[in-house]
Amino acid sequence: MSKSFPNQLFRSIPTKKPIDFPPKQGGNLSFRRREPPLKVTTTSTEGRNLKWAVKSGVVEEKRATVVVDVEGLVGFLYEDLPHLFDERGIDRAMYDERVRFRDPITKHDTIDGYLFNIRMLKLLFRPEFHLHRAWQTGPYEITTRWTMIMKFIILPWKPELVFTGISIMGINPQTQKFCSHVDRWDSIKNNEYFSWEGVMEVVKQLRYYKTPDLETPKYQILKKTADYEVRKYAPYIVVETKGDKLSGSAGFNDVAGYIFGKNSSTEKIAMTTPVFTQASDHGSYNVSIQIVLPSEKNLGNLPEPNQEALSLRKVEGGIAAVSRFSGKPTEDIVQEKEAKLRAALLRDNLKPQEGCLFARYNDPGRTWSFIMRNEVLIWLEDFALD
């Protein structure tokens, strides 16, 4: 059975005139060329900082080239950062309101949060901040290297926490201010927030080492890794004599007698810490025992020793890698600690010198072994902060 359909169902479809691409001159079709969006690479920290600024709306998303006075900002950091924890504080005006702060265990996304973090550190600790270096590492990026020492004052034994590392400071090219601040600690591998490794690093440093309230050789901590500290020692003077082994005490009564008055002027000299034993070779066959003399003394105003076996010597100081440990320091333990420290230095492409020093800070007859502070030191050659 056939069916018929109304003619109106089969209306003709009009044919569209083809469009030429590109359109012919005089045509009414036009195209508005759009600038491609700003492409921010994440292959560098500078790129991540700029990407954060774009995402937060603090940098206009366009390709305009902005000249930033990075050299001037480097100079500003050298002048401003030493005030991080003093009454003056840092200059808030040089940071965006939406500054991004990250370290392994802390994060803030505003300048108010950033400054709150600084106030909390000042409340709980007695922080000291030392800026070693600041330099440009990207078109909108400055990196700083620093040491921070914090005494945790709310614990009875007031442990001293040491952190070293770098801060990567991102610059907002539109405001010429800092829009991000990311800290990387030298002592851990996982520096991304939130890092349990960072938490354990803090907990580890809360343990108690007994350090007598006596003068010690002056040093500055340049770097702290998971295995050792790198310290820059100022020159100091020792009275020394021949010892028997690194963990031994042979000769101690002689050097102690010198500071207790057995010298050419019977002068009594203040006790210091630590007592050093030094091995000048790998096999520890040539060992001396030393007491460091007070810093106000020099070779010109010290009395002469009464014994020929004693001598006064100026140690020129320098850069040393140091490994700390507690417990009763037997010879095997000291040798093991020295070997581990030397292996870690070679692994990190540093240049340890021959020999080592063993530092004892406590009287073994009056100190529990588990709170003793013992250290092995190895002098380094050609060390430079990265």
Automatic annotation (TrEMBL):
<dbReference type="InterPro" id="IPR011256">
    <property type="entry name" value="Reg_factor_effector_dom_sf"/>
</dbReference>
<comment type="similarity">
    <text>Belongs to the HEBP family.</text>
</comment>
<dbReference type="InterPro" id="IPR018790">
    <property type="entry name" value="DUF2358"/>
</dbReference>
<dbReference type="Pfam" id="PF04832">
    <property type="entry name" value="SOUL"/>
</dbReference>
<dbReference type="InterPro" id="IPR006917">
    <property type="entry name" value="SOUL_heme-bd"/>
</dbReference>
<dbReference type="InterPro" id="IPR032710">
    <property type="entry name" value="NTF2-like_dom_sf"/>
</dbReference>
<feature type="region of interest" description="Disordered">
    <location>
        <begin position="13"/>
        <end position="35"/>
    </location>
</feature>
<dbReference type="Pfam" id="PF10184">
    <property type="entry name" value="DUF2358"/>
</dbReference>
<protein>
    <recommendedName>
        <fullName>SOUL heme-binding protein</fullName>
    </recommendedName>
</protein>
